[in-house]
Write a structure and sequence with these properties.
Blueprint: H1 4-18, H2 22-31, H3 36-43, H4 47-54, H5 61-75, E1 76-77, E2 80-84, H6 86-96, H7 104-111, H8 122-131, H9 137-148, H10 156-170, E3 178-179, H11 180-190, H12 202-213, E4 220-221, H13 223-235, H14 251-260
Antiparallel strand pairs: 1-2, 3-4
Helix pairs in contact: 1-2, 1-3, 1-9, 2-3, 5-8, 7-10, 10-11, 10-13, 11-12
Length: 265
């Protein structure tokens, strides 16, 4: 059994993430021997505990929003208090103790409806964290545990939402396409987090990168190509022999298949 100080610390973290009542927190944590991630999973399967947590929430919302406004002020662009610039966003990541290149940052960006990489708006930040019921940096840090799991990449439907969000978030403002080098970096970051079965190996990803950096004539990826690449990645067979060149795939994928087949065993 963990010491009392450890139990108290885990209880505080658990309640910060879930907004659970103290009796429910103690009951659930005791069942899983104070293992935080297991307790969070159990909480979201406990309908009574969730109902208890939601009671009285509406009266707290204005207080939460007020606190979040003050937190955002720390990171706001001095020239435009309605949004952050890259320096403010990096400072926010530093306070969260998270690497700006950690994929969980993309999930935070989606939560807060970030309009582009390296930028948060005041309204999106306040609305997003209000919906998560987090009004402190400590609460946000604890919430990252949840975002890394069931609410972030824990199922394929959610993964696809994060993946699709990433295109508009990462492309340059005013551009319709995503630069190839940015797309390649994001594929390398995101695809390993998917739980979907696939035969698209690291070797395939290496070839895809080589193709985009070489034979591919364009230096940009369209939204259609970005979206359908996830389906291609999921359904491809090892030697790509089953790929149907007459199907409605983007030309970049068909061209890649023809180029890559001779290079695969």
């Amino acid at each position: 059994m963990a010491s009392k100080s450890v139990r108290d610390g885990v209880t505080t973290q658990f309640r910060s993430v879930t907004n659970a009542t103290l009796p429910d927190a103690q009951r659930i944590l005791k069942k899983v021997n104070y293992k935080l991630e297991h307790a969070i999973e159990m909480f979201y399967g406990d309908q009574q505990a969730m109902r208890n947590a939601n009671k009285g929430d509406s009266g707290q919302e204005s207080q939460i929003r007020s606190k979040l406004e003050k937190i955002f002020d720390r990171y706001a662009n001095p020239a435009d208090k309605t949004r952050t610039n890259i320096d403010g966003t990096l400072a926010f990541c530093a306070d969260l103790e998270v690497d700006p290149e950690d994929p969980v940052v993309i999930v935070v960006a989606m939560l807060c409806k970030s309009p582009s990489m390296g930028e948060f708006t005041r309204s999106g930040f306040v609305d997003g964290w209000t919906s998560a019921r987090k009004d402190s940096i400590e609460g946000m840090q604890a919430h990252l545990i949840q975002l890394r799991g069931r609410e972030g990449f824990g199922d394929e439907e959610t993964f696809r939402k994060v993946y699709n969000f990433t295109f508009d978030w990462a492309k340059q403002p005013g551009q319709r396409s995503l630069q190839c080098d940015t797309a390649i970096a994001l594929w390398s970051l995101l695809l390993p987090l998917s739980t979907a079965p696939t035969q698209f190996t690291n070797r395939h990803l290496e070839l895809w990168t080589e193709f985009l950096n070489g034979p591919y004539k364009s230096k940009a990826i369209s939204k259609d190509s970005w979206t359908l690449f996830l389906d291609f990645w999921k359904t491809s067979r090892g030697d790509l022999s089953e790929h149907d060149l007459d199907a409605a795939w983007p030309s970049v994928i068909d061209d890649f298949v023809e180029w890559a087949r001779p290079k695969l065993p």
